[in-house]
Amino acid sequence: EIVGAAGTPYEKGIFDLEIVVPERYPFEPPKIRFLTPIYHPNIDSAGRICLDVLKLPPKGAWRPSLNISTLLTSIQLLMAEPNPDDPLMADVSSEYKYNKQLFLMNAREWTERYASQ
């Protein structure tokens, strides 16, 4: 589980994650995805996360020195600071860029609907 940070539209939300640790860990990154729906430009409807530390080089930034705790912190940072220039969800990304109020409203609504306990 990951908790939405204060001051974000995901505040007080509790999001379930699936973490699959591969046999070659730590030489290969764990596969992490959201099980709880989340309205975010870098997380798609299947829960896949677009984040460089979840991918091997040359495209990714995974290093064996990273651990699951570091990855969860990186995911929390991504939740707080989306990267609209590398989106998985183009429509959510353009909403984030060009109509932030609507994005924040939708993200809060999804958090209340899916991530409230």
Automatic annotation (TrEMBL):
GO molecular function, one term: ATP binding
InterPro entries: UBC, UBQ-conjugating_AS, UBQ-conjugating_enzyme/RWD
Keyword match Ligase: no
Primary enzyme class: transferase
Pfam families hit by this protein: UQ_con (PF00179)
EC number: 2.3.2.23
Family per record: Belongs to the ubiquitin-conjugating enzyme family.
Protein name, UniProt field: Ubiquitin-conjugating enzyme E2 T
Naturally occurring in which organism (per UniProt): Alectura lathami (Australian brush turkey)
